[in-house]
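Re: that backbone. Tokens:
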């Protein structure tokens, strides 16, 4: 037990990675801001709304955004991407299979009865094999794209081995999975994505879902009712 505690402490002291999770907008999308203290490089995942608050966190830690990553093109995850890109000049990563959904963001805004956000060009097609690197070149932290379609056709998750974390977008939640009844959704496909891409990860991996509290792969493997038949 004492040995285990010492190991946990060691890991905390050796991590220079800032990670702030900010629920933004009316649907409280979890925006993740990862920042490397040594280089000041940051990656912002799912800047759905409230760009001013995101900017405040970046300024507080003296961070410079290197990449904006969108897990999928639903308005609550992508709504602030244009504004954040204009502010930082950072490239936007999104899976091209969600381009059509993004093209119709005005329709999504109507469903939510909110104003349609300005759209931005997508700079990098975020698909499996692609990664974003943050931190010093001698010990970079890699954010690997995993293709996890099903909630939408272009849904991705980000796997960060150095942090033992998974940013899951709306694919996996604590006790639930993403809805598949919206355009582009496919219930068999989301389960296949979870089975093939997420469940192979270790039980200790911390999952940051697109909404709601964090969880772990192990907890969801044991208790998530949607995963028990997998
Ligand atoms: Zn969504």
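Recovered sequence:
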């Amino acid at each position: 037990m004492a040995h285990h505690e010492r190991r946990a402490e060691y890991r905390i002291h050796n991590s220079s990675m800032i990670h702030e999770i900010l629920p933004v907008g009316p649907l409280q999308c979890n925006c993740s801001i990862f920042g490397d203290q040594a280089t000041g490089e940051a990656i912002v995942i799912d800047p759905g709304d409230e760009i001013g608050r995101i900017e405040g966190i970046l300024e507080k830690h003296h961070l410079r955004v290197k990449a904006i990553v969108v897990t999928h093109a639903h308005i609550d995850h992508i709504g602030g991407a244009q504004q954040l890109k204009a502010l930082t000049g950072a490239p936007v990563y999104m899976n091209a299979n969600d381009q059509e959904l993004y093209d119709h963001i005005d329709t999504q805004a109507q469903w939510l009865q909110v104003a349609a956000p300005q759209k931005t060009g997508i700079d990098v097609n975020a698909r499996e094999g692609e990664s974003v690197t943050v931190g010093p070149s001698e010990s970079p932290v890699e954010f690997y794209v995993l293709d996890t379609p099903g909630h939408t056709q272009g849904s991705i998750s980000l796997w960060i081995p150095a942090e033992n974390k998974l940013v899951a977008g709306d694919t996996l939640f604590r006790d639930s999975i993403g809805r598949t009844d919206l355009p582009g959704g496919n219930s068999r496909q989301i389960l296949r994505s979870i089975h093939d891409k997420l469940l192979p990860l270790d039980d200790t991996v911390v999952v940051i879902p697109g909404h709601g509290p964090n969880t772990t792969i192990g907890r969801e493997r044991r208790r998530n009712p949607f995963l028990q038949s997998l």
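The pocket of zinc ion is lined by residues 72, 74, 151, 170 (CB under 6 Å). The first strand starts at residue 17 and ends at 24.
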